[in-house]
């Protein structure tokens, strides 16, 4: 069973970074031995652990041959009690027989998979090495040590989402596949507390009840014939009532938004999950959130909150059936508009989009889903070289798609868009994003190193043409990914963006304040062997009508010291880029994805 006896061998192997040459040369050997050594090993074993599962005594036990890797004895799991588990202890004879047969089939599948090395993009020993490795939940801890002074205006909670696999992977695993975990630092009168909790998704709750992972991992497992076999196994388990996918399969690990008194944790493969910040600063999953029955399809993890109207704008994409893309919005009190179906020829990855004062800007780019590629042995996430990237500009209040204006932007792939605004004097929409090459390198192994170029893309609504230019000069070019502009000015012309210095990729060595008008870059580096993730910009004044300067605020960033193996939250003054305060955290915070800040005033109104 995946959660029972254990040693620390697997976790050691998972957390220890490899040099790339070691990775490529020895991958087959590693798969046989399941063991890696590294200088970090001596510093980390007591700190990196896979959460233990104390809330169930499942009758469903994975065949021991599925996971022959011994496991670490893990610390007490503080997970919320499972209140929604499958009635697996009441399976009938047919179900038990089916479960045994499907387990045997899975054992055979895993044994076959282990005869071949995994690509780096699906190898858990690469994907969740070092501080990408998961941590157990932590109940709230108060009065954390603070160096410096927390600015008076920071009252509320900083929450950040991330991928944190609850169970060790039995086969392929991509970093994006992990279960959602939210980390929360709450500020109250100059003091800070910290907690982290899994988001109790339907899949996690069921896997806990079963005591092992059974839901397919969208990127790490679903490629080639093995991926098809895993899908068939999953559907067969569903047919026999051993798992239930009818309430979603998402991991809720990517984005966070606070809207209409709800904190929502999101991934683009499912509905959001409502998570509540408790008065003490802890986190509690309320439920999968369908906006009171209004939302019936997945929603992307980067909905856009308009700072002026207070409306929330979102997309939904489908990888199997038409319509492949829908746009909708929510009024400030949470009333959803009708879906606007946007016709596109093929299912396309749309991780992000942008808003302006009057429009939504929708990227229709070259990373698409071709499920038939699995039959040919490949990944269903592919770069379509025959497609021309384009942006769709649609009125925010559109009732239908007929007025969408598509403007081509060849060879442009932006995983994220940081902002967009209108320049009526030139009939242009200006889009700020990081153009990534190779476009699919996050998902598919390739030799070319990743480049992420902060770019200004101009879409001319009159001529239907686009232009694109790098914002930073060639000599200063640096990979910039994950970040934001002042959220009080989203959709309006902004001068500054705060973006992660994504080097050495995929680590983040600091962040940059970029003057989007001049290209000037001011860097803040975390220091030797210290890395972080998305910098959050918190305006000093939450009033959007405030006359304060655009950069009058603070950057909040989790920073992990890989020498000391300790994590901090740092607060940096965005005007002068000086450190104001650092908060020592009681446990490691893995590198993660996106966050937001909820003011204490908003927290009081929380549902
Ligand atoms: Fe994202």
UniProtKB/TrEMBL annotation:
Keywords: Abscisic acid biosynthesis, Chloroplast, Dioxygenase, Iron, Metal-binding, Oxidoreductase, Plastid, Transit peptide
Originating organism: Morus alba var. multicaulis
This protein's name: 9-cis-epoxycarotenoid dioxygenase
Pfam families: RPE65
Low complexity bias: start-end ranges: 54-65
EC annotation from Swiss-Prot or TrEMBL: 1.13.11.51
Cofactor binding, note field: Binds 1 Fe(2+) ion per subunit.
Cellular location(s): Plastid, Chloroplast
Residue span of region Disordered: 53-85
Reaction catalysis annotation: a 9-cis-epoxycarotenoid + O2 = a 12'-apo-carotenal + 2-cis,4-trans-xanthoxin; 9-cis-violaxanthin + O2 = (3S,5R,6S)-5,6-epoxy-3-hydroxy-5,6-dihydro-12'-apo-beta-caroten-12'-al + 2-cis,4-trans-xanthoxin; 9'-cis-neoxanthin + O2 = (3S,5R,6R)-3,5-dihydroxy-6,7-didehydro-5,6-dihydro-12'-apo-beta-caroten-12'-al + 2-cis,4-trans-xanthoxin
């Amino acid at each position: 069973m995946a959660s029972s006896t254990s040693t620390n061998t697997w976790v050691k192997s998972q957390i220890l970074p490899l040099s790339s040459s070691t990775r490529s040369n020895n991958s087959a050997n590693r798969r046989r031995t399941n063991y890696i050594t590294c200088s970090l090993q001596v510093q980390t074993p007591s700190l990196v652990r896979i959460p233990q599962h104390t809330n169930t005594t499942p009758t469903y036990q994975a065949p021991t041959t599925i996971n022959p890797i011994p496991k670490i004895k893990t610390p007490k799991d503080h997970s919320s009690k499972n209140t929604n588990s499958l009635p697996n202890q009441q399976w009938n004879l047919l179900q038990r027989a089916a479960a045994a047969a499907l387990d045997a089939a899975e054992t055979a599948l895993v044994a076959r998979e282990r005869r071949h090395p995994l690509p780096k993009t699906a190898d858990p020993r690469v994907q969740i090495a070092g501080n990408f490795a998961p941590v157990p939940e932590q109940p709230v801890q108060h009065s954390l040590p603070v160096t410096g002074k927390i600015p008076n205006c920071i009252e509320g909670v900083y929450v950040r989402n991330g991928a944190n696999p609850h169970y060790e992977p039995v086969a392929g695993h991509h970093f994006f596949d992990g279960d959602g975990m939210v980390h929360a630092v709450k500020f109250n009168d100059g003091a800070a507390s910290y907690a982290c909790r899994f988001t109790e998704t339907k899949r996690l709750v069921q896997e806990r009840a079963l005591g092992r992972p059974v839901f397919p991992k969208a990127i790490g497992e679903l490629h080639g014939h093995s991926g098809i076999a895993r899908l068939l196994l999953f559907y067969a388990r569903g047919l026999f009532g051993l798992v239930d996918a009818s309430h979603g399969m998402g991991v809720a690990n990517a984005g966070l938004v606070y809207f209409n008194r709800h904190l929502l944790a999101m991934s683009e493969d499912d509905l959001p999950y409502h998570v509540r910040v408790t008065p003490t600063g802890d986190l509690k999953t309320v439920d999968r959130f369908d906006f009171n029955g209004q939302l019936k399809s997945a929603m992307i993890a980067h909905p856009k909150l308009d700072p002026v109207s207070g409306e929330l704008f979102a997309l939904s994409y489908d990888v199997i059936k038409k319509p492949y893309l829908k746009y909708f919005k929510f009024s400030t009190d949470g009333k959803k508009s009708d879906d606007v179906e946007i016709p596109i020829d093929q299912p396309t990855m749309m991780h992000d989009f942008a808003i302006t004062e009057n429009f939504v800007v929708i990227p229709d780019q070259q990373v698409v889903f071709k499920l038939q590629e699995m039959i040919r042995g490949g990944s269903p996430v592919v770069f379509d070289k025959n497609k021309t990237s384009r942006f769709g500009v649609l009125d925010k209040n559109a009732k239908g798609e007929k007025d969408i204006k598509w403007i081509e932007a060849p060879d442009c792939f932006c995983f994220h868009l940081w902002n967009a605004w209108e320049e009526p004097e030139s009939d242009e929409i200006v889009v700020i994003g990081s153009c990534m090459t190779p476009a699919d390198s996050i998902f598919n192994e390739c030799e070319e190193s990743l480049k992420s170029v902060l770019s200004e893309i101009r879409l001319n609504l009159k001529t239907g043409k686009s232009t694109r230019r790098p914002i930073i000069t060639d000599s200063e070019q640096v990979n910039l990914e994950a970040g934001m502009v002042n959220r009080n000015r989203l959709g309006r012309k902004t001068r500054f963006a705060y973006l992660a210095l994504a080097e050495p990729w995929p680590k983040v060595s600091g962040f940059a304040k970029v003057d989007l008008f001049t290209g000037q870059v001011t860097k803040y580096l975390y220091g030797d062997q210290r890395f972080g993730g998305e910098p959050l910009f918190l305006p000093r004044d939450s009033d959007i009508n405030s006359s304060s300067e655009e950069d009058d605020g603070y950057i909040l960033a989790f920073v992990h010291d890989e020498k000391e193996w300790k994590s901090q939250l740092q607060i940096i003054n965005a005007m002068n880029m000086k450190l104001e305060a650092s908060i020592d955290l009681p446990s490691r915070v893995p590198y993660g994805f996106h966050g937001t800040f909820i003011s204490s005033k908003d927290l009081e109104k929380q549902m």
